[in-house]
Amino acid sequence: MINPILLTSFCTLVELGHFTRTADKLNMTQSGVSQHIRKLEVSLGQVLLIREGKKFSLTPAGNQVYQQGKQILAAMEALETRLQDDPEFEGEVSIMSPGSVGLRLYPEVLALQQRYPRLSMDYRFAPNDSIESQLSQGELDIGLMSKLSTNPKIKSRAVAQDALVLVTPANFINTLPSINSTISWQQLTDLGFIQHPDSAYQAALLLGTNFPEFSHIDDIRKSGFSNQIGAILEPVSLGLGFTVLPAFAVDAFAYQDKIKRHTLLNPVNETIYLCTSREHVLPKRVKGMLARLEEWLA
Questions:
Q1: Which of 244, 229, 230, 238 lies closest to 194 in space, CA to CA?
Q2: Looking at residue 55, what is its pLDDT?
Q3: Which residue from 256, 267, 255 is spatially nearest to 161, judged by alpha carbons?
Q4: Distance (Å, rounded) from C-alpha 298 to C-alpha 294?
Q5: Minimal CA–CA distance to 283: which of 131, 89, 76?
């Protein structure tokens, strides 16, 4: 690996063209500059300068080292400046969340990026397990999860509640007795269930708490499936079945007049946790985003 101190001495000498002026600029002696050049040549196994009295010329290897060395030193200087400045609205921030939370947050994230174009947002929708894995491997800045992580590498705090909602087509009318105010178990089974990747877990939480008849979602006729969070309510709006979704996802659906939310006797909420890696020092842009995400969810 090239020593950056030796490379600095060499590039400065080439630019100034004189050992004395180089020594003055670097606050060194002329012999010190010469030693640096010799050490660089030894480390690279190449002759870099052809000395002609007080003058010198570059060998082909010396010219190559100079041209690329300038770029390396400039990049190092830019990196050092950037680390010292640590701007809040420049650089990339990576975020992952369940789809429901993403539907709530992604428009806010894009609006922020419009205000600060040097801020690059990498936002992905993913299940809890994937988010936890990315955080523990240090490949993600911020994760939003609907479960509390037990991984010791991950720091989590609860920031919001996302209610689970039973949704039917808008033209649904309750005609049978029920312990709930707007729907009966028989009518649910007649409608059929629109499944999605988290439906078994979320339906078990909400339906199991409110309907004694419920044992497993597989006991209800499957009338459709979608793995796209923004499309799950499309078949519901067309009268093809019912589903259970977090409120953030229901709120984001464009055709609210074509669906009906049902108030059940026992509400169920998912807690949303804001998560980061315990092993990373967070730059200002990530700290700022954490504060904004919490504000938006609140």
A1: 244
A2: 83
A3: 267
A4: 6
A5: 89
The residue type at 33? V
Non-local CB neighbours of 120 within 8 Å, separated by 6+ positions: 91, 92, 93, 113
Euclidean distance between CA atoms 237 and 260, whole angstroms: 9
- Nearest alpha-carbon partner for 276 in 134, 107, 119: 134
User: What percent of the chain has pLDDT above 70?
Assistant: 97
Tokens found for residue 267: 């509400």
Cα–Cα distance for residue pair 267/156, rounded to 1 Å:
24
Question: 273 φ, ψ to 5°?
Answer: -110, 135
> What residue ranges define each of the domains in the chain, with the CATH number in brackets?
4-85 (1.10.10.10), 161-270 (3.40.190.10)
Are β-strands 55-58 and 49-52 bridged in parallel, bridged antiparallel, or unpaired?
Answer: antiparallel
For residue 293, what are its two tokens? 């995400």
DSSP state of 114: H
CA angle 235/110/140 to nearest 5° reads 90
What's the token pair of residue 40? 């660089």
Q: Whole-angstrom Cα distance, residue 277 to residue 42?
A: 43
pLDDT band at 2 (very low <50, low <70, confident <90, very high): confident
Question: What gap in Å lies between CA 103 and CA 123, rounded to an integer?
Answer: 11
Q: CA 226 to CA 216: how far, in whole Å? A: 19
Q: What is the pTM of this model?
A: 0.66
DSSP per-residue codes, 192-232: -EEE-TTHHHHHHHHHHHH-TT-S-GGGSPEEEE---GGGT
Which distant-in-sequence residues (6+ apart) come within 8 Å of 29 by Cβ? 23
Short-list 158, 127, 155, CA closest to 141: 155
Longest dimension (CA), the chain: 106
pLDDT given at position 4: 86
